[in-house]
């Protein structure tokens, strides 16, 4: 067989994305493929079958993370291309899915060209990146990186009380391989992802290297008031936690804007039964904070706590009974050399935007703790993500996938040159 220069296939890549969305698709064109659901298990089995058909050795670790490894000339830890296949309950067809299938397409391109790399190359599917079913997000990569314990990862439960371990066992995805970067190391990790924001869309540029990821912290906060009759309790006698909550929402936005960060309240509920003609008894909500520097994140949380305390002190009969940290991840700076490979490949297209900092968290945040890591963004229409209308054009997907392939090959050649020079 003639050895050719590897090149990704746009039509095949886009057909693969749509085929993979058979599992978990919704009538509105979006996706609802929660982590370790039946749909997620089905697409994982499909991914395993597709990579085995290319001659890859497939390993599943104790968190269900899947590593499909194409051998290289040397028996070394692989250079990985990875992301996730789980989605939000009202998600789209590109978030995470694009990154895993870019890994698959790169394996196909290498195989098609009969191209033998010195280092093995792997496509990786990380477990429960979204955190929509099992909190926190990036659970599989977090355990792999040693940021979370295996016991913690296995014991996470969904709203029905079903644990991660139980679902891994049910689907046959509880692998024997230790979920650890020490026993299953990677040489490097690359990830292709939609931007999930408006910068590339507004700039009319399809691709950019990513220099790092802003930090994030998730909290669950409980407010306790006193339930009462809506028609017989005058305002002066009410102990309404919902009114206090509304004031906290406005304060959170004000504080975040003043400190150059972001805040989102994405979940709101109550432990008590609710009724139209009742003052609520309690409010439980989730607060998401984001900042691109560690100092900024510390200031954001500290100021938010102080502001919330001041507001609640003025709400008679309402108190903060709980402020639990669900997850806390520091800002991440990616590897300079790996990022440069992505940047140079993107610039070669003549359509690259300057480097971006990711506003969203990704599995690459945790792989960056264990090995050189870089990301590549492509634009998504109107910057919309985590929604059925999330969309990236086939043309932009083609650009991003080819950029990632060339970045991986450039990085692999650099490492190979160093390795063979030493020997």
From TrEMBL:
Keyword annotations: Hydrolase
Annotated Gene3D superfamilies: 3.30.70.360, Zn peptidases
Superkingdom field: Eukaryota
Keyword Zinc-finger listed: no
Record keyword Heme present: no
GO molecular function, a single term: hydrolase activity, acting on carbon-nitrogen (but not peptide) bonds, in linear amidines
A Pfam family of this chain: Peptidase_M20
NCBIfam families: hydantase
Similarity remark: Belongs to the peptidase M20A family.
Name by which UniProt lists this protein: Amidase
Lineage, highest ranks first: Eukaryota, Fungi, Dikarya, Basidiomycota, Agaricomycotina
